[in-house]
Amino acid sequence: MIGDAIKRTRERLVKLKRQRSTQRRQRERRDTFNISLVGYTNAGKSTIFNALVKARAYAADQLFATLDTTTRQLYLGAAGRTVSLSDTVGFIRDLPHGLVDAFQATLQEAVEADLLLHIVDSSNFEFPEQMAQVQRVLQEIGAEGIPQILVFNKLDAVDFDRRPAVLEDCYEVEGRMVPRLFVSARSGEGLDGLRSTLSSTVLAAVETMTPDPTIELPSELP
Ligand SMILES: Nc1nc2c(ncn2[C@@H]2O[C@H](COP(=O)(O)OP(=O)(O)O)[C@@H](O)[C@H]2O)c(=O)[nH]1
Ligand SMILES: [Mg+2]
What we know:
By secondary structure, the protein is of the alpha/beta class. It has one domain: P-loop containing nucleotide triphosphate hydrolases (Rossmann fold).
């Protein structure tokens, strides 16, 4: 009987521990600024993620190379802040049966983000359709209202005569003007610009998020 009681208590402990760590993770998410990389499969999300955090998430020319979300802390020197950056799987339509559950977790990260980096393969002639598909998925999961920055990647693979004159501008996405940057995760071009845009965006967002300490709350309810 004592052996049974010990076993049951152990099991309860394990369960409690798991609940605790889930709660801690949720608390941490609330207290940090969360950025999620979204975009069509093969746009270069994992490569940009690696370049920004210098981690080694798997980048490969294949569908669904990464099924689960990878999250790393990213220090933005210009903002004097650490944010959390999440790599996600590609937002491709018509998911193969059985993969939907695996995608659910990664899509959840996107919904809970404070900012979405929408990565686009600018060397692919079908990028407008791919962007539209990503927007549709964002809408389906209720993430269409989250602020976005468009990162037009693979600038090194864009033909010389199609190269944009300026590397930072705005681009219309469903009637909204969204900040856009051209980068090459491969050559590193534009990544410093991306870091400084992230810093200023995070600073501006955090300023409006932090409650004004000069406003006094009533200490007693009438
Ligand atoms: N030419 C070029 N290829 C890139 C660039 N960024 C990523 N790639 C390649 O595009 C493929 C897909 O990259 P990956 O990061 O796995 O894309 P993801 O599916 O969006 O995560 C890989 O073969 C990368 O090496 C880039 O800036 N230029
Ligand atoms: Mg990837």
